[in-house]
From TrEMBL:
<feature type="domain" description="RSE1/DDB1/CPSF1 first beta-propeller">
    <location>
        <begin position="15"/>
        <end position="394"/>
    </location>
</feature>
<protein>
    <recommendedName>
        <fullName>RSE1/DDB1/CPSF1 first beta-propeller domain-containing protein</fullName>
    </recommendedName>
</protein>
<dbReference type="Pfam" id="PF10433">
    <property type="entry name" value="Beta-prop_RSE1_1st"/>
</dbReference>
<dbReference type="InterPro" id="IPR015943">
    <property type="entry name" value="WD40/YVTN_repeat-like_dom_sf"/>
</dbReference>
<dbReference type="InterPro" id="IPR050358">
    <property type="entry name" value="RSE1/DDB1/CFT1"/>
</dbReference>
<dbReference type="InterPro" id="IPR018846">
    <property type="entry name" value="Beta-prop_RSE1/DDB1/CPSF1_1st"/>
</dbReference>
Amino acid sequence: MYLYSLTLQQPTGVICAINGSFSGGKVQEIVVARGKVLDLLRPDDNGKLQTLLSVEIFGAIRSLAQFRLTGAQKDYIVVGSDSGRIVILEYNKEKNCFDKVHQETFGKSGCRRIVPGQYLAIDPKGRAVMIGACEKQKLVYVLNRDTAARLTISSPLEAHKSHTITFSICGVDCGFDNPIFAAIELDYSEADQDPTGQAANEAQKHLTFYELDLGLNHVSRKWSEQVDNGANLLVTVPGGGDGPSGVLVCAENFVIYKNQGHPDVRAVIPRRVDLPAERGVLIVSAAMHKQKTMFFFLLQTEYGDIFKVTLDHDNDRVKELNIKYFDTIPVTSSLCVLKSGFLFASSEFGNHALYQFQAIGDDPDVEASSSTLMETEEGFQPVFFQPRKLKNLVRIDQIESLMPIMDMKIVNLFEEETPQIFSLCGRGPRSSLRILRPV
């Protein structure tokens, strides 16, 4: 007898999504987290998304990340959840299931603010993983192989800092030097002791680099610097010979390149022509595409506009940061750029779509912003654009998602007619008014 509690209708909204080669070889796949369900998707030869595996985990998935050990042929999946554990999964192609490679307990169960699980960051070379909480705690695990080439995981190394709120973390690509993780943090210790509220108004966010010393097996705060208080997201910049390293800090109205010992390179995010001046622009999701000779970033704003970000660099020195309008699609929770030429856009409220690249946004006539634009007395010179239909992307498949009901009314206009139910479903550009008539 199995006393499992299952719902008839599985959740359809996607909390987060990652892409990689989980079955091995050059096949590109997508893993999506639908609350308590973990799905493995793969585009077929016709560009249609096929569900290879769907697993009920009986918990709440908060974050996902993938990594690959140096020289390996497949990717592993790291899951952050409400279980108080870090779980590493491997897809078993023969059995069509996720094998649990490691499960290490570090805290109590539940979505707690000081128990890690909300944030995950991977060293780009697959040597370590940082799992962080909304507040105070961060743990680093070293990943390696044993003599039988099986994945091993170390004991947790602490990188805690009390009275500190974390907004985003990511791994810094520093080649094969000691792994470094970056975090946007806010220290509220003074604000907590000041009843006047003055200290809270003066609280400042910082970008902090944590270094994992593989020789001493110790994590230390390597570097910390003030960052724009509107900063909300970090994006890893390729390094180790492939790029200048460092991170992109996505803040309100700006994208900033930062690295230790490097001056800030800042560019303004282009604005819609009809956007009120008092409304800011925030980046909500990001993806990076890297080839042997080039790389670029796709950043999406809260209004659905996607921008292509490129760096003009000479070795480890960034000379210019360029932001160019790419396309506009519904707001996503995650963007995944596949090496096979597809873009998977998952959404928490609405349908999920698979797009194919028709171009990579090299049109010189498109509105663009650059870090070399002149700064005026009122700030950086704004750049305006007008949204248009898809030009660089074409949608080839879509996964239907149930929309949440925001409001509902029963209307009976005439006594002889059957009452109708009017429901407002979803929110944003894909919301709809649905009319139901009882049979």
